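Weekly sync notes, structure subgroup
Attendees: PM, AL, DS (notes)

Item 1: joint prediction request from the bench team. They want all two components modeled as one assembly rather than separately. Inputs as received:
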Amino acid sequence: MKNFKSAKRAGNNLAADSAMVVLNENFKYFGYGYFDNVHDAIPPIKATFYSFRIMVGLGMWFILLFIVMLTILLRKGLDKKRWLLYAGVLSIPLAYLASEMGWLVAEFGRQPWVIQDLMPTSAAVSHLTTGSVQLTFALFAITFTILLIADIKILSKQIKLGFKEGGAK
Amino acid sequence: MFENLSHLALQQYWWVIVSLLGSLLVFLLFVQGGQTLIYRLGKNETERTLLVNSLGRKWEFTFTTLVTFGGAFFASFPLFYSTSFGGAYWVWMLILFAFVVQAVSYEYRSKPGNLLGHRTYEIFLFLNGALGTVLLGAAVSTFFTGSQFSVNENNFSQWETATHGLEAAFNIQNLSLGLAVFFLSRVLALLYFFKNVSNAAIIERAKKQMVYDSIPFLVFFLAFVTMLLLQQGFAVNPTTGMVSMEPYKYLHNLIQMPVVAGIFILGVLMVLLGIIRTVTCFKTCSDKGIWLTGIGTVLTVFSLFMLAGFNNTAFYPSTFNLQNSLTIQNSSSSHYTLTAMSYVSLFVPIVLAYIAYTWRAINKTKMTTEELNDEGHIY
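Output from the run, pasted for the record:
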């Protein structure tokens, strides 16, 4: 690509065309030029392996839970099965966990690429200082933690207030 | 259809779409302007709640337009996106935080047990209104004043100042546009309240406020336009692609693109006419000003984007190295990507029609304090 660009700048179309041929022939390996070591092309296996299994395991748990719930609901005994209702409530956070695990599979599993075979993550990152990223992370963590606490407080309050005709107030 | 267009034609098509989205966004920033007026116009809790609910029915329109504008820019001109968002990092982070706290403030403000109290969420709304408008205005102004970044031969960009974009807010021209957008958003908010809120005390205060906000808007807008038309601009040689400084470049652009000049003049006149008619014949004209000034805003901002990107101009100039400046040609997606996106863009009129329909449905009647008591979802 360097040869192509410098030939273009110099107005040498012949050299540019020949550089383009070389580029096109090797384009599918373009991103590998960023690696010094073959091991750099391997994604983090452990993290991908376990997060995938946790996600699928939780998916299986949800299917089982819904089958049991539906069966007991159709027999009109759901309100008497307190253990099942507790299992339902306790499973709510598991849905978020499964979703997060799915993201981890996607993001760990795609490494080291942001664009498969063309651009590795290491080449795509912005040129920011570590301090800037740490500060942003801290700001996000603080802001969202405060908002999460507020959210939980609002939800708890609404649950205590119960239903009102015409919507919650 | 689109695949037969040249790459340049597709780039120009997408610059027009991005410009349209940007100008619609500036009009919709009236929500932000309104948020900075909650305490100026609302003197008790009921009045403030009325104002917040009037804006609360519209804030998602602004938010979605901001996201669509950013998304369209990202997809059509990715080198601009990576340069600006990765480089002018702190400006965009501040804008992001301002919009994060806005979203929750509307939903949490009036809920029992909201941890921070309704006043804190009103302060968040003010911060969003002030920071969002000033910083977005200043960021757009860098299209004309330039930024300190470099782009290497592999298209990797790097910001060349440690302040990562915050320096833009200390440039007098950027600041002028930022403040012009801030006061314009307040003027638009007042015009919106005249149309949307039925409360004599609020309307009376808003009427006085019109003058207090219109004058600084005009001062800062005129200052920006004067500096723009007199400044050197970033001209691109269409044959070699070399960038050089050209005296009166944006004035030249205006003269060489008479359609854009016409849109600009019409836009400015409509903005002014909307304000003047509202102030001078308040009883009969007050609820019509939003359309005149609103459409005028869209036209004016649209023409500014045209000045920045068309007529062989670098729309995101680098003052660090002129030859690293971004143009619609050297920063766009490939022909294939722009073609695919252009087909998707055919759905834009459907989305616009849907927005117009929902807007009409929401706006059928003016908001009153009585209505707040009947409303199931209070912001």
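Discussion: Residues 126-169 of chain A form one domain.
Action: AL to compare against the crosslinking data before next sync.
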